[in-house]
Amino acid sequence: MTLNIRPRRSLLYMPASNPRAIEKSRNLPADVLIFDLEDSVSPEKKDLARNEAIKAVNSGNYPSKELLVRVNGIETEWLENDIKEIVSSDAHGVLIPKVSSIKDILFIEDILDDYGAKKDFSLWAMMETPKGILSSNEIAKASNRLKGFCIGTADLSKELGCSHPSDRSPMILSLQMVILSAKANGLIVIDGVHINLDDDDGYRASCIQGKELGFDGKSLIHPKQIELANALFSPSEDEITHAKEIINAHKLALSRGKGVITHNGKLVEVLHVEQAKDLLAKASAIANLGKGN
Questions:
Q1: Which tens digit of pLDDT belongs to each residue from 38-60?
Q2: For residues 74 and 39, is the Cβ–Cβ distance under 8 A?
């Protein structure tokens, strides 16, 4: 499956210093695995985590998954060694924490180039600082390697000094700014984690809110969150049926020399047809992913 149409409904963070967790990840239905070298790894285990992450992405055990590695921060002593090892592995890309400016992206891009990263090796940016949010549109244009944004709501709420309720109302403006910047520049945008694993209702509400806002998927911290994210960020059967009806009705109208039609009492324009085609392409990609392609 080509990465440009790959579903990214569920992105699961895996602590790379935990070989047992990595072993279990082989059969998890997450669309993307993020082997984490940053927050979940203590300083004395950074080298171990890096080695385990490289071993995992090179194992061949994840043929249908996108594999990312979240490296350590730009100002840390571990960053360059992280990137040096990752670019020569089978990872698809790196996730950079706390990106706050164009300079951060260009700095990482230079390191990637210095170590011979392939052209299709992708760069992802964590958007979790006030400066990063305010600069998100400029950041989105900074590099052809940049594939997408991942929101970091925990760090963002800390830096904003705001509360972090389940509806994330104090951060809605920040979320919308990042979504706008991503969509305006053709990037993927992924919602932040829901950290309360005992709050099933809050997690469901967060996923629904994220999809309604325009996020393409959800970042996760536990395997039990995967199933719901995959379900809620997938086109429903009703949506698929409606999309097919829109496309067929538009084809029929064109054959009769009509440019604008109504379907079930609603106006159908070209933009609706394009949306329907995009939805069906996403549904097809999800079906192919399920076949292990």
A1: 989 999 999 999 999 999 999 99
A2: no
Residue 115, C-beta contacts closer than 8 angstroms, at least 6 positions apart: 83, 84, 87, 88
Question: Taking the CA of residue 114 as centre, how many other CA atoms within 13 Å lie in the half-sphere pointing to its CB?
Answer: 11
Contact by Cβ (8 Å): 77, 108: no
- Residue 123 neighbours by CB under 8 Å, 6+ apart: 93, 94, 96, 105, 108, 109, 112, 143, 145, 146, 147
* 119 within 8 A of 143, measured Cβ to Cβ: no
Give the DSSP per-residue string, 214-277: T-SEEEESSGGGHHHHHHHTSPPHHHHHHHHHHHHHHHHHHHTT-S-EEETTEEE-HHHHHHHH
Output the six-digit token pair for 128. Answer: 């979790």
What share of the chain in percent tops pLDDT 90? 86
* Greatest Cα pair distance in the chain: 70
Q: Does 260 score more than 80 pLDDT?
A: no
Residue found under tokens 């990840």: 25
Confidence band for 13, pLDDT divided at 50, 70 and 90: very high
Q: How far apart are CA 287 and CA 197, in angstroms?
A: 28
Residue 21 token pair: 């967790």
d(CA 236, CA 239): 5
Task: Identify the helix (H) or strand (E) that includes residue 197.
Answer: none
CA distance 267 to 171: 34
User: Residue 256 burial by CB count (10 A; 0-12/13-18/19+): exposed, middle or buried?
Assistant: exposed
